[in-house]
Amino acid sequence: MEHKTVPVAPVPGGDIPTRLAEIVNEGSIRLLRSRPEAPEEIIAALLAELGPVIEAGEIWLWCLPDGTAVESTHFWHRDGKPAETVDFKVFDWTLLQLRRWKPVLFSRTAELPAEAAAEKAFWQRRRIEAALLIPVTSHTILTGVIAAGMSRHREWHPAVIREFRLLADLFAWALERKQTEKTLSACRKKLKNSQASFRNVIVNNADGVIVLDRDGVVRFANPAAVHLWGGVGNDLIGTPFGLPLVGEEMTEIEILCGDGRFVVAEMRSVATEWKGEPAQLLSLRDITERKEAERELRRAKAAAEKANQFKSDFLANVSHEFRTPLNAITGVAALLQETALDPDQHEYMEILHASSRLLLSLINDLLDLSKIEAGKLVLEHLRFSVRKVVREVMHMLAMKAAEKHLRFTREVLPEVPEMLWGDSRRLRQILINLINNAIKFTDTGHISVTV
After folding, report:
1. Cα(199)–Cα(383) distance, rounded to whole angstroms?
2. Can you give the pTM of this predicted structure?
3. What whole-number distance in Å separates Cα of residue 150 and Cα of residue 133?
4. Which residues are CB-contacts of 41 (< 8 A; sequence separation ≥ 6)?
């Protein structure tokens, strides 16, 4: 920090304590009237006035920001010499006294105790014979030192010590006020930046933000809110909101824009303050496109349900039309099996009978599709023979395998029970699908079905 050095000519004669008191009083008034952030010039001038009055060789104001590190903010020398950097941390004895709020004073350097060897060397190097050091404190914490040094023997009058204490208190107040103002200035800057950032967020928010006073009149509206109403600038300010508020719950409202369009918005209202008065803060989000998409989705769903119903009705009608001739084929095949047939004819009739029943089962499966879509499909729980199901499926597909010259075998392991509970019709369909795929993708060799 730049040192303040102000040489002033000595003031001859006069009552020193009285003159000191006048300087302290005048300095107090000048500091009170000064700007809080800039007391340095007045402090430098006060030191320059004090020096000649007490016939000092030099006067210091040392600041100790952390209690030990020295910042020599102000210095006055009778001959105008510059300040000297002081390592106050080595002044252990002096710091100990000052931290106890005791002044350090001596009429001769020889009076300093042995523990003050570093201080004694410092003063002797500067040709100081007598010195007075007064602690500058803030809230009982040592924050600085005001010191006066003289090149000759000097007895320190109690009135002089008292005025120096007052001066130390004055400097402590001025420097603390400066630091407080510095802190306040930083806080004001942060607050200003925070307000600017907050306003920037509100103004550029994609959602509408509106503040209503207790009478429901709009006091603030960001651009997004104005756009919702189809206005510009401050068109909404000062106008009644005109729509009901529902606590803090999210509600949907319809807004009639200036161009005659209707806009759907989600709105939420919370209690707040505006310029010290009760108010309501509204947040609004345009959901017009979302509502239109929901309507389109409902229309598409209704159309899909209608198409599904049409399909179900069609399948029901078609399956009914197929059942009639198939029932006749199945019945005739059953009757023919009861007539006199040779073994080959009997086997063929058995395949015909099984295939017709399977075809009837497939037609029933068409109806199952609509049942699955409606969530109404129910599996049967009946006793059936696995071996019989496998045999019928093998008979039905044997000719298809023979066309590709494939060996076609089956095996039902002994541990498989003769009768099981389940849905034989769907098991039969699964086997048909699996075996059909096996025949389709097998060119040579054999196909074996093992259960």
Report:
1. 77
2. 0.48
3. 12
4. 4
